[in-house]
UniProtKB/TrEMBL annotation:
<comment type="similarity">
    <text>Belongs to the glutaredoxin family. CC-type subfamily.</text>
</comment>
<feature type="domain" description="Glutaredoxin">
    <location>
        <begin position="13"/>
        <end position="74"/>
    </location>
</feature>
<dbReference type="Pfam" id="PF00462">
    <property type="entry name" value="Glutaredoxin"/>
</dbReference>
<dbReference type="InterPro" id="IPR002109">
    <property type="entry name" value="Glutaredoxin"/>
</dbReference>
<keyword id="KW-0676">Redox-active center</keyword>
<dbReference type="InterPro" id="IPR011905">
    <property type="entry name" value="GlrX-like_pln_2"/>
</dbReference>
<dbReference type="InterPro" id="IPR036249">
    <property type="entry name" value="Thioredoxin-like_sf"/>
</dbReference>
<dbReference type="GO" id="GO:0005737">
    <property type="term" value="C:cytoplasm"/>
</dbReference>
<protein>
    <submittedName>
        <fullName>Glutaredoxin-C14</fullName>
    </submittedName>
</protein>
<keyword id="KW-0963">Cytoplasm</keyword>
Amino acid sequence: MDKVMRLASESGVVLFSKSSCCLCYTVRILFQDLGVTPTVNEIDQDPEGREMVRSLMRLGCNTPVPMIFIGGKLLGSTNEVMSLHLSGGLIPLLRPYQALY
């Protein structure tokens, strides 16, 4: 769990992903469209990936990917991100991490 929490707090927006996950790709593109470049941790490419999956599940995640942290805090998975975006709550959370255009 230490590695997951360390990685989650190293950057403003962190996405735990698998390289073959289409929902992970969708969340990444949404963030990029909103002007945010998340730090992506591909757990299927990490030698400690299995332990990272267990850590994410211990945090209460129903599925290990995609799992999103904003400001070091667990936001959730695709459902939480999309629900927040549709209700207007995602952009205020991302505003501190948006690139200036």
